[in-house]
Specification:
- The protein is 34% helix and 16% strand.
- The protein is built from 10 helices and 18 strands.
- It has a 6-stranded antiparallel β-sheet, with helices on one face. It has a two-stranded antiparallel ribbon with strand order 7-10. A two-stranded antiparallel ribbon has the order 8-9.
- A hairpin with a 6-residue loop joins strand 5 and strand 6 (88-92).
- The radius of gyration is 41 Å and the shape is elongated.
- It starts with 10 loop residues before the first strand and ends with a helix.
- Residues 159-172 and 275-362 have low confidence and may be disordered.
């Protein structure tokens, strides 16, 4: 922002002016506010142009275009006076730098940022074109990056769909490097004209330069019509789409609706890639469900099955995770018909060395039930009782024989 100059007005209509926001070919834009404190961007035609009927007509078109457009990607019209000595109109003030200033100060945007900005601008252009308006001068300096998203401003040379791009014979209206070939040739403008400008704008956001380089207006216009754009530095995810936007033939360019949908997909994918540093192939391998538990849950060669989690049963040579000894460990496991039966007292009846949860790995019988383990103390007690009873019986028999 700049301070007001001596020649600048202090009050326009019901708005008090505070600062200069900038100046263009048609006039000066001021920061103002109304009695309620609402801030506006107020544009006033230059004194030397206020008497030019052509410029008054162009200014009236800008106001008419702003009134017809509905959508959140443009600055809302607040008030206007086309009959004043110096015609003016006020729109909602949009805080934030222009895309041009943002890139010039901080460098090119990331692929995710470019896709997000492009998706919002495409959606805004859908509303612009539905109102029967073609912006015709979409470029980085006419895009403001507000906290609520990008906003398209300056419809000073906007025109109804199908109108010529020339104000005088042989003179193209717009900014070299962002003009579409049909504008340079003087052909009718269409929504595809804005698509070309959006493609050049996205290329600038990625490279901090016009896709047609630098030079005089004549050189730039020649390149737009006859040469292919330079897209070195544009991220691979965006390059094909940007190149399609910059097609020489308007019929070969995507529509704004197609652009919006495609750029939203790219923005979502790129944002996910930024939040996860792993390569896409590696993320796919990790995130793809396999039916196996993580290694941290695999203890002693046996996978513990937690409530609510279901392990995948494998066939065709695969096997369900088992404890040592080939025994299924989960509560839903079934015995395999090919497993050899366990023989009590044999080597396989001993507790296995693999443990799950700090306990010996469970064994099952051929019926799927766990066999009862003999209690040594109880066995000794039974043996003593058996010996005592045997001795008593023997003594009784011996006493009977003596009698």
């Amino acid at each position: 922002m700049m301070r007001l100059r001596r020649e600048d007005p202090r009050v326009v209509g019901s708005f008090r002016l505070h600062r200069r926001l900038g100046a263009g070919g048609m006039g000066v834009v001021y920061l103002g506010s109304d009695r309620r404190g609402q801030r506006v961007a107020l544009k006033v035609i230059r004194p030397d142009l206020a008497e030019d009927q052509e410029f008054r007509s162009r200014f009236a078109r800008e106001v008419s275009a702003a009134r017809r457009i509905r959508g959140g990607c443009t600055a809302r019209l607040v008030a206007a006076d086309l009959e004043a000595e110096r015609p003016w109109f006020a729109t909602q003030y949009v805080p934030g730098p222009s895309l041009h200033d943002k890139v010039a100060e901080e460098g090119p945007l990331t692929a995710a940022q470019i896709a997000a900005v492009g998706a919002a601008l495409s959606e805004g252009l859908v509303a612009v074109h539905e109102a029967g308006v073609v912006h015709r001068d979409l470029k980085p300096s006419n895009i403001l990056l507000s906290p609520k998203g990008p906003r398209i401003i300056d419809f000073g040379i906007a025109w109804a769909t199908g109108a010529s791009t020339l104000t005088h014979v042989g003179t193209a209206v717009g900014s070299p490097g962002f003009l579409a070939p049909e504008q340079v040739r003087g052909a009718a403008v269409t929504p595809a004209t804005d698509v070309f400008a959006l493609g050049a704008t996205l290329a600038y956001a990625a490279t901090a330069d016009s896709p047609f380089g630098h030079g005089s207006s004549e050189v730039m216009l020649y390149r737009v019509v006859h040469e292919e754009p330079h897209l070195q530095g544009v991220p691979d995810a965006l390059a094909p789409l940007v190149r399609a936007c910059l097609a020489k033939d308007p019929e070969e360019r995507p529509t704004t609706l197609q652009l919006s949908m495609r750029l939203k997909e790219i923005a979502a994918r790129e944002a996910q890639g930024l939040s996860d540093g792993r390569p896409p192939a590696q993320r796919a391998r990790v995130e793809r469900p396999t039916g196996r538990l993580p290694e941290a849950e695999r203890i002693g060669g046996a996978a513990e099955e937690y409530p609510g989690r279901r392990t995948e049963r494998r066939t065709g040579g695969g096997s369900t995770p088992r404890a040592q000894g080939g025994t299924p460990s989960g509560p839903h496991s079934r015995p395999s018909s090919s497993r050899h039966p366990q023989h009590p007292g044999g080597p396989s009846s001993r507790p296995t060395s693999g443990r799950t949860g700090g306990r010996p790995a469970p064994r099952t019988t051929g019926t799927g039930r766990r066999p009862a383990r003999p209690d040594p103390k109880l066995m000794r007690q039974r043996l003593i009782v058996f010996v005592v009873v045997t001795l008593i019986v023997a003594l009784g028999i011996a006493a009977a024989q003596k009698l």
